[in-house]
Write the structure tokens for this entry.
Amino acid sequence: MLGVSVRAWVVLGAGIMVATLVRGDVARLDAETRLAAADAPTIVAPLDGSALGDYGVTLSLAGRGAMIPNQHTYCEIDPSVVDRFGIPVLRFSFRWAEHEVRQARHMESTFQEIIQKMGGTVLGLANPEREGEGISIGGTIIHELGTVRMGKDPKTSALNAYCQAHDAKNLFVADAAPFVSNPDKNPTLTITALAWRTAEYLAEELKKGNV
Ligand SMILES: Cc1cc2nc3c(=O)[nH]c(=O)nc-3n(C[C@H](O)[C@H](O)[C@H](O)COP(=O)(O)OP(=O)(O)OC[C@H]3O[C@@H](n4cnc5c(N)ncnc54)[C@H](O)[C@@H]3O)c2cc1C
């Protein structure tokens, strides 16, 4: 999954109403200012109502996008590294494609437009030095899926629609590995739904003596 974020500065004092995204924060800040003013009226009272106008509010917008599989992103058995049991570990290769980079640019320009229409000033990407092209580094969003993809054709997929291996009928993979692409939504509910379907199918196949 890819991610993009943009920070902005919004000045309230000029009579600009900030949308619901920050309304809660504005109310809280205002209440805190009033509370402080009640405690120490001679020092804080002049700030009442003017602090927000003078200093404004910053907000950030973050976007999530989908990743389409590409030939440069895959895992394989590492030819030289083994774990503490001597079992070879997986080695991953990863690369964003033009598809994801374009999504990120579109998100960024949309965020900038939203901020400018609200009367804000765009401060830039949250981590410009770390996130070249405005796109997060692969793995940052921690929703890694796939590697044992499902599909009808055993030549292009490892599992069938019930997460059962094409090549070994008594092998089922019930986790995020059967995903064929990475949607922009959180995956856990889909992982659970697929596992449920797998379990029902497995129970039926067991009754029939097929596995
Ligand atoms: C901090 C964090 C927050 C998240 N929040 C959300 C959220 O709010 N909503 C959401 O939908 N998703 C969320 N995710 C993503 C979600 O947790 C993952 O997509 C999901 O856990 C993937 O499930 P999985 O079973 O495929 O892999 P995992 O849960 O990673 O399970 C893999 C298992 O394999 C084991 N393993 C690895 N190598 C070996 C080996 N060689 N031998 C034996 N066992 C091995 C590991 O120990 C692990 O138990 C989050 C992820 C993280 C890290």
